[in-house]
Amino acid sequence: MSILRAENVSYRYEKTENYVLEHVNAEFEKGKLYILTGKSGAGKSTFLSLLSGLDRVNEGRILYKDRDLSKMNLDRYRASEIGVIFQSYNLLKNCSAVENILLSERISRGKKGDRKQVYELLKRLGISEETAERKVMHISGGEQQRVCIARALSHSPEIVMADEPTGNLDEANSCEIMRIFRRLAHEEGRCVIVISHTEKMWSYGDEIYTIGGKKVKAPKGS
Q: Which of 93, 178, 185, 197 has its CA 20 to 30 A from that of 31?
């Protein structure tokens, strides 16, 4: 059963005539890792923005647990139901990994996070307590990306979305990040949606949606 669904979704930017996405249909379930791919400019990031409630569809609808996003409190949806990871890390460089996550908790959810819980979360993602206390400007790109994943997971969302999370990483770190996403889906039962243009990364996905030609093609294996 799908936790998130796009039904006949179309979208165009304000003051433009051409649609970026047109009549898109897609379903996403818990326990699976989905790969969104397609040529540059095909609308991958736009589609993720619509799924995450950062933008609203022009036509059609997006349903979370059969509830129309257009009728939901989107701030609450983003703060509690989903975790979003952007290609640009958006980390505070002069703060430590732990501080970045605690500040995110305070700003987006209005609560003081538990430092010990953040340590445990980072440890699950391969970040030691010593590394967690370093300013993020002094840790590697792969470690910064893991901090971003931890930040997205800090409120235990059922859905995790990532926009080109391996775009700035070498192959070894890229593969490790994709293995983390696969574990989040297969071992923790989350719905994980990842944009990737790198074919080597597609093998980690359970299903692949190709965005292009103004439509989302059927996933692999259907």
A: 197
